[in-house]
Design brief:
Thioredoxin domain-containing protein, about 10% strand, 4 strands, Glutaredoxin, four-stranded mixed beta sheet, DSBA-like_thioredoxin_dom
Length: about 220
């Protein structure tokens, strides 16, 4: 019996393509049907925009125009495009609600959840909070609420965030991304040897996973 195929994903909560890429990966696995091998997914921290203020007071259009030096019309077109791609993946983005902020505390909470076997559930909840609901994913009280929603212990989560217990793990993930040469997310590493950059179509993930499964079968 072969072991599960490991899929490591570098991702940020404040990354629209990371949520889309998550859906494409899930669709790629589902498309394999009965032939789908067991997979083990682990998310790793990445800070897409380290210069983001803790609480940006303004709209997504203003944020990108002001901080990235992009014309308003270009920003609006870009957001419309991303919203359309997200919709095709089954996601209902609301950029008018997005609260831009640093995501390091959210990444700490994901490490807390990983230690308790609930990282995937929390990752989904945080992405929805950020892109659909306009949640403040840097505020401890809100983060505790999301943790409790997926079944994590709120008091333990609060202690972990207030103590910064997982801050070093977040930085270790970011450093590992740098060592791998990852400068954009999402970035998927399948079976420790195949890298897929960006929110590729579902069939790209299907093909890569099927290839690894075939290699494992041949080796066995």
């Amino acid at each position: 019996m072969t072991s599960p195929i490991k899929i490591d994903i570098w991702s940020d909560i404040a990354c629209p393509w990371c949520y889309i890429g998550k859906r494409h990966l899930e669709a790629g696995i589902a498309a394999l049907g009965d032939e789908a091998p067991d997979v083990e997914i682990e998310y790793h921290s990445f800070e897409l925009s380290p210069d983001t203020p803790l609480d940006f007071e303004g709209s997504t259009v203003e944020y990108l125009a002001d901080r990235k030096g992009m014309p308003l019309e270009r920003v609006e077109q870009m957001l419309e495009h991303v919203t359309g791609v997200a919709a095709k993946a089954g996601l209902d983005y609301h950029f008018e609600k997005v609260a831009h902020t640093k995501t390091l505390k959210a990444h700490e909470l994901l490490h807390f959840a990983k230690a308790r076997g609930m990282q995937l559930e929390l990752k989904e909840r945080l992405l929805k909070a950020y892109f659909v609901e306009g949640g403040r994913v840097n505020r401890i009280d809100e983060l505790i609420g999301y943790a409790e929603e997926v079944g994590l212990d709120g008091d333990a989560a609060r202690e972990a965030l207030e103590s910064g217990r997982y801050a070093a793990d977040v930085q270790a993930d970011i450093a590992q991304a740098g060592a791998y040469g990852i400068n954009g997310v999402p970035f998927f590493v399948i079976d420790g040897k195949y890298g897929i950059s960006g929110a590729q179509p579902a069939e790209v993930f299907s093909q890569a996973i099927a290839q690894v499964a075939g290699e494992q079968g041949a080796a066995a």
